[in-house]
Every structure is written in structure tokens, then in C-alpha cells.
Design brief:
This protein has about 325 residues and is mostly helical. The protein has 14 helices and no strands.
């Protein structure tokens, strides 16, 4: 039986505990909110065709919202884990390296120049924007010869993120669509519906499955690129596929919830501390823990000041900023 890095807890037991916590948090997220829902009504809403106010709240509001939280949390956590493993950079995160800002800028351009665009093409715009953001970050890094240190990547990511955010805000002011842009980019699950999930979920599912399939290659890349080449791994081709996976996951997540930062940074670190450094376990476990954490943040946002909502992006930022500073203080030992 596989063990975690501490050789005390079987990996299978960690996965079982994580899955149970995910199910419990999902059920809790359906119960709690400005309107308290009895557990019996949750069962009736899912398993029967009965009607009623509380059943409609579950079916049309909470169920699609929390399913969205599960997929977004998994997508951002896995994309962060893949980025950290591929670049051997402990500070890698879609929100810190320009991907989410690029997707937001692309949304603003689409709303301004192609009003009335359907949700599918909005998501396509997010994919293009995420790719543009990542391309700008790594293009700036490549301009200077030498080793790509974690801090150089973060500085480039901060600069590109600030620029793309300014682009999105400038377009919003110029074309008087600031309200529409803000509704997309604020970062939250309010208004998530079944139609959006039908578009988003297949893309995230493909990205997650591909990441799991390539998890062994991510483990090899996380050790040393020379070792990967020596083992016969086609590193450049693998990296291209992994970058596509990251863009797919990040673009789909941003199209659904807007700008969510730090979850892709925190979750892989938490998982590695429990389960070790093998990405065959880190990637699927990051999906489970990320989904659970996103459900927790969304539920807290709904109940902390009910009946008003606290944006989930604000809650994640409050949790994530101290974690980010702690990782910076550590200096990324073990990853550089």
C-alpha cells in the first residue's frame, strides 16, 4: 500500500478522508445560506420530482452554484499544481502569473466589441486571454538571459497582471460597460446556472483528466529537466500539452467565476505537506481539496453576513495573502 511522505498515513486513506470531507462540505453548502434548508428537502430536490419553494431554491440556485464551485476549485487547484511542478516554482499560480488577468481583459474586449456574444464564445475569449497573459509573462522573462527564478516570474506576472487589469478597466470606462465587466470579473458564483455548467464542465473535465494522465511526467519535470530528458521524456512536447491544460482549466474557471486568486497557490502546498512530492497523488488530491476549499469559501461568503453576500474572491484573498507571504519568506526551498 502506498504511503505518504511521512510513511505514517496510507495514500488511499488520505484520498478517502478527502472525498468524505468533500461530500460533507457539498451537503453543508446546500443546507446553509440566507434561507436555511432542511436536510430532507435536499434529498427530495435531488431524488424526486416534488415541487416547492425550498426545492426550487436547491435545484435552480444552490445546486448549480455548488457544482460550479466544485469544478472551479478543482480546476484552479490542479492548474496551480501543474504550474508549480512544471516550472519548479512554489509561487506559480494562475492568478499570479497573468492568466486570470488575461482572461478578464479578453472578456472586456468581447463585451465591448461583440455585445450579445453567447456564453460559449465568451469562454473561448477567456482561453485566448489566458494564453495571451501567460505568453506575455514568459516572453518578458525570456528577454533576459539566465535562470528563471521564482521571483523573476512573480515580478513579471505582477507587471503583466497590472497592465491587463488596467486594459480591462480602461475598456470598461471608454465604452461605458464598467458594470458589465465588473459583474464578470468580480469573482463569485452568484447567478451560476445549468446552461453555464453545460458549457464549462466538459472543458474542465477534459483538462482534469489530461492532467491526471500526465501526472507522472509532471513528477519527473518537478525533479530536474535534465533527468527528464535522460529518461527519454519529450520535455518540450509535454510542456506544450501541460500549458494547454493550464489555459483550458484557467480560462473555463474565469469564464464562470471571474478573477479568483490564491487557491491555485495554496492548495498544492497544503496537499504536498500531507501526501508527499509525487504528482500522481498531488494532482488528483489537489482537485479534491480545491473543490472542498472552494465550497467552504462560498458557504462562508453566503452566511457570514446573511442575507448579504461577501464576495468569495475577497475571502480567498484574505486567506491567501498571508499564505503567499509565508511561501515568499521560505524562499521556495525544495523547489528552486
Amino acid at each position: 500500500m502506498n504511503k505518504t511522505s511521512s510513511n505514517t498515513i496510507p495514500v488511499s486513506l488520505v484520498f478517502l478522508i478527502g472525498f468524505i470531507l468533500l461530500l460533507l462540505m457539498f451537503a453543508l453548502s446546500l443546507i446553509l445560506g440566507s434561507a436555511k434548508i432542511p436536510v430532507r428537502d435536499i434529498w427530495l430536490a435531488v431524488a424526486t420530482a416534488q415541487t416547492g419553494e425550498s426545492l426550487s431554491i436547491i435545484r435552480e440556485i444552490r445546486l448549480p452554484r455548488e457544482i460550479g464551485a466544485v469544478f472551479v476549485g478543482a480546476a484552479l487547484s490542479v492548474s496551480g499544481a501543474v504550474m508549480q511542478g512544471m516550472t519548479r516554482n512554489p509561487l506559480a499560480d494562475p492568478g499570479l502569473l497573468g492568466l486570470t488577468a488575461g482572461a478578464n481583459a479578453a472578456l472586456a474586449v468581447t463585451i465591448a466589441f461583440l455585445p450579445g456574444t453567447n456564453y460559449f464564445w465568451m469562454m473561448m475569449a477567456c482561453f485566448i486571454g489566458a494564453a495571451l497573459g501567460a505568453g506575455l509573462v514568459f516572453g518578458i522573462i525570456r528577454m533576459k538571459k539566465g535562470r528563471m527564478s521564482p521571483f523573476r516570474i512573480v515580478l513579471a506576472g505582477a507587471a503583466v497582471t497590472a497592465f491587463l487589469q488596467a486594459v480591462a478597466e480602461g475598456i470598461g470606462l471608454t465604452f461605458k460597460i464598467s458594470k458589465e465587466v465588473s459583474m464578470w470579473t468580480a469573482g463569485g458564483l452568484i447567478g451560476t446556472n445549468w446552461m453555464q455548467l453545460q458549457v464549462i464542465v466538459p472543458f474542465i473535465t477534459v483538462g482534469l483528466i489530461t492532467a491526471v494522465i500526465l501526472s507522472r511526467q509532471v513528477t519527473i519535470l518537478s525533479l530536474n529537466e535534465d533527468v527528464a530528458t535522460g529518461l527519454g521524456q519529450k520535455t518540450e512536447q509535454i510542456k506544450v500539452v501541460l500549458i494547454v491544460v493550464i489555459i483550458l482549466l484557467t480560462g473555463a474557471a474565469v469564464a464562470l467565476v471571474g478573477n479568483i486568486a490564491f487557491i491555485g497557490l495554496m492548495i498544492p502546498h497544503i496537499v504536498r505537506s500531507v501526501i508527499g512530492t509525487d504528482y500522481r497523488y498531488i494532482i488528483p488530491m489537489s482537485a479534491i481539496v480545491g473543490a472542498t476549499f472552494m465550497l467552504l469559501a462560498d458557504t462562508v461568503g453566503r452566511v457570514i453576513h446573511a442575507p448579504y453576500e461577501t464576495p468569495v474572491a475577497a475571502i480567498l484573498s484574505i486567506m491567501g495573502l498571508p499564505f503567499f507571504l509565508w511561501v515568499v519568506r521560505k524562499g521556495g526551498k525544495g523547489f528552486s
